[in-house]
Amino acid sequence: MHGASPAQSNRVTPLHSRLHALLICALLVTVAVRFAEPIQDGDLFVHMAYARQMLARGTLILDHTAFSWTPAHTDVIYCAWVSELLFYGLWAHVGMASLFVFRYLVILAVVGLAYAHARRLGLARSPLTHLVVMILVLASYTGTIIKPEILSLLGMNLLVHLFFWAKLRRDQPAAAIRVLYLVPLVLVIWANCHGGFIMAAPFLIATAVGEGLNLLFSPGLALSRRTYAHLLASWALSACAIVATPYGIAYPLQLFGDLVLGHRPRPDVAWNAAHRSVIAAIGGGFYFEELFVLMAALLVILTALRFRRAPRGARFDWTILLGNLACIPLYVVYLRGTFMWPAVFAYSALQLLHVLDALPHRAASRTGFRQVLRECTVALFLFLAARSCLTAWFHPFYESWLGFGISYINPVAEAEFLAQHQLGPRLYNIFDSGGYLLWRLDPAYKVMTDSRSFPYLSWFDEQYHFTNGEDVDAFMQKYVANVAVIDLMKVDLTRWFARTPDWQLTFYGPTAAVFVRRGAPVTRDGHRVPAESLHHLRNAYTALTVFDFATNVEDFATAWEVLDQLEQRLAYQVDPKALQQALAYRDAHRALHAGDIERARSLFTRALEGKPLSNLDHTIARLFERLADPAADIGSVKAALQQLAAPG
Q1: List of residues 6+ apart from 193 with CB closer than 8 A
Q2: Which of 193, 230, 430, 461 has its CA at 20 to 30 Å from residue 292's CA atom?
Q3: Distance between CA 569 and CA 558 in Å, rounded?
Q4: Which residues, in sequence order, are CB contacts of 330 under 8 Å at separation 6+?
Q5: Distance between alpha carbon 102 and the CA centroid of its chain, in Å?
Q6: CA–CA gap between residue 638 and residue 634 (Å, rounded)
C-alpha cells in the first residue's frame, strides 16, 4: 500500500513523465505568482508590537491597552506568542524579505505534505493528484497571509496528514499508533501559535465518530480496534495539550465560548470581511464559491464510484464523510476559516482515488475512463493555474500588487511624516491603518483603534459611526485627539475634515490624509505636502482613490499626475468606466479653461455621475444652473466658470 502498484508502474510512459513534469512546473509557477504579494493588512505589525512588548516587559502575558489612548479592555486572552516572536525575530534580525520567504516555505510545506501522501498511495504522478493539490493551494488562500494564521494553515495540514497517514497504515497497527501520537505534539505547538487550533476540533471529533462507525458498518476500511483505542487516547491527549499555554484552560474555554456559544458579541464584523461568509468574497478574485463547488463535486463523484464498485464492508468511509461535513460549515460561513476544509478535502480525495485505483475494472472501460479523466483533469488544472496568475497580475487585491513590500492598506509614508514631526500624542485613525501606526509610532503616538478590534468593542458603535462620517462632532467632543490620520477610502470622513475650519490638511499619501488642528506647527508654512510615493503608484484602485481625494482638496497637480499613471503604467489594472470618468473630469476642466462651456458641462455630468461633489464641484454646478436663468449675466457667469478651471 505504500508505493505504486506494478500495474500502475507499467503505465508510466515518457509522455506521462513529461506531463507530470509540466504540471509540477505549472503548480510551482502558480504558487510563485499568486502569492507574490506585499504585506496585506496591519495584523502582522500588531503581532510584532506584541512581541516587542513581551521582550521589553519579560512576560508572555499581554497588555492590550498599551498602544491606544481610548478605552480598551484586557479581558480577552490572545495567545500567539510563538508566532509573534518568530515574526519579530525574522523582521528584526533577517529583514522583511525573510517574511515572504517564510510564507513561500509554508505553502510549499503544505504542497509537499500532500505530495508525500500521494506518493505513499502510488498517486504522485496522477493528473488528478496535481489538480487536487492546486485546489488545496488556491482554496487555502486566507490562511497564507503573513501573520500567525499562517501557522494554523500549516498545523491543520500537518494534523490531517498525520491522520490519513495512520489510516493508510491500518494494516501495521504499531506504525499507525506511533503516527497518531504525533497529533498532541502538533496541537501543543499550534495552541501557542494561533487560536485557529480550536477549529481543528470538528475534524478530530468527526474522525473519532467516523472510525467508530467504520468498525460497525465498514470493517474493510476501519482501523483495528487496538488502533482505534489509541486514536481515542491520542485525541484525549490533544484536548489536554491545548491547555499547555501561559493561560491554561481559560484560553480554550474562552475560544469555545466566543466562537461556538457566542458569549462575546462581535459588532466589528460590520467592517471585517474575515468574519463573514464566503459570499462576502465573491468578486474579489478568490473564487471561493467556485472552488467549493469543485471540491464538493469531486468528493461526490469519487465516493459514488467507489460505492458502486467496492465490495461490501468497504464501500463507504464514514470518516471521510463526517470529516468533510464537519469542516464545510467553517468554509461557507466563516471566511477566516476557509483554509480548514481544503486540507480535509485534499487528503479525502486522494484516499478515495487510491481505493478506486486498486479496485478491479474491465480493461476497456478502465482505459476509456482514465483517458477522459486525464484530459479533463489537465484542462481544468491549466485553467485554474492560468486564471490565478492572470488575476494576480490584472486584478490584485485592492491596495496590493504583484510583488513585495508593504501594501497601501498600511500608512507607511504617513507614519514617516508623523515620526518626523511631533504633532501628537493622540491620533484619530481608522481600524485598517491602526496596526501599522502603533507599530511604527509607539510610544510617541497612541492610536485611537486598530485591527485587533476586540479591546474596543465596548464603544464600537461610536467609532463605526465616526469612521463613516456620522456624528463626528459629538464623537470628537467626547474623544479629544491632536492629529487625525484618515484613510482616503473613508470619503465622507475625509471630506468632513477637509471642509471643517478647525482642521487643516498637512500631508497625504497613498493610504491616508494627515489633518492637524488649525494653528498646529507644521512644515512648509502649513501647505499640504503630497507623499513622494504618489509619484509611482502600484495599484489602480489606490490611484483612483488618491485621484478623487486630490481633486476634492483641489490639488490638481497631483491629481493629473496620478491620472497619467492610470492612463499609462496602470492601464492594465484600471476599471475602464472609472478611468473614463476620471479622464472626463480632467477634460471638463480643460474645456472650462478653453471657454468651451457646453462641452465642459457635458463632461462634468459624465465625470461626476454617482460621485459626491467637492466644494469646487458644487460651485461649478451652481454656476451651470445660473446659465439657464434669463436674468443672469451670462458673460460674467462664463467668466467665473473659466476662472474656476483647474490648471493643466
Answers
A1: 80, 82, 83, 148, 151, 152, 155
A2: 193
A3: 16
A4: 199, 202, 337, 338, 340, 341
A5: 17
A6: 6
Give the HSE-up count for residue 365: Cα atoms under 13 Å, Cβ half-sphere. Answer: 5
Q: Is the pTM of this model over 0.90?
A: yes
Place of cell 482505534: 228
* Phi, psi angles (nearest 5°) of residue 601: -60, -45
Q: Give the residue among 465, 397, 381 at the shortest CA–CA distance from 430.
A: 465
Pair 31, 107: CB distance under 8 Å: yes
For the chain, helix (H) and strand (E) counts, in that order, are 27, 5
| CA 132 to chain centroid | 22
**What is the SS3 string spanning 171-237?**
CCHHHHHHHHCCHHHHHHHHCCCCHHHHHHHHHHHHHHHHHHHHHHHCCCCCCCHHHHHHHHHHHHH
B/e letters for 98-107, b = 16+ CB within 10 Å, e = fewer, are: ebbebbeebb
C-alpha distances in Å from residue 209, one per residue of 108, 160, 203, 242, 409: 31, 16, 10, 21, 44
Q: At what angle do helices 225-241 and 173-180 cross, to 10 degrees?
A: 10
- Rounded Cα gap, residues 146 and 450, in angstroms: 17
Task: Name residue 211's amino acid.
Answer: E
| pLDDT for the residue numbered 500 | 92
Q: How far from each other are the two terminal CA atoms of the chain, in whole angstroms?
A: 74
Residue 441 C-alpha cell reads as 509610532
Paired residues of 517 in beta bridges: 503
**CA gap 96, 364 in Å, rounded:** 56
Q: What are the φ/ψ torsions at residue 300 (nearest 5 degrees)? A: -65, -45
Q: What are the residues whose beta carbons fall under 8 Å from the beta carbon of 261, sequence distance 6 or more?
A: none
Q: Is 20 exposed, middle or buried (0-12, 13-18, 19+ CB in 10 A)?
A: middle
For 535-574, b where at least 16 C-beta lie within 10 A, e where not — what string? Answer: eebbbbbbbbbbbbbbbbbebbebbbbbbebbeeebeebb
Kindly list the averaged pLDDT for each block of 10 residues, start to end, along the chain of length 648. Answer: 40 78 97 96 95 97 95 92 98 98 98 97 93 97 96 98 96 96 98 95 97 94 96 98 96 89 78 71 76 96 84 85 95 90 97 75 56 87 97 92 96 96 92 96 96 90 94 95 96 94 94 91 61 93 96 94 96 94 96 93 93 90 89 88 88
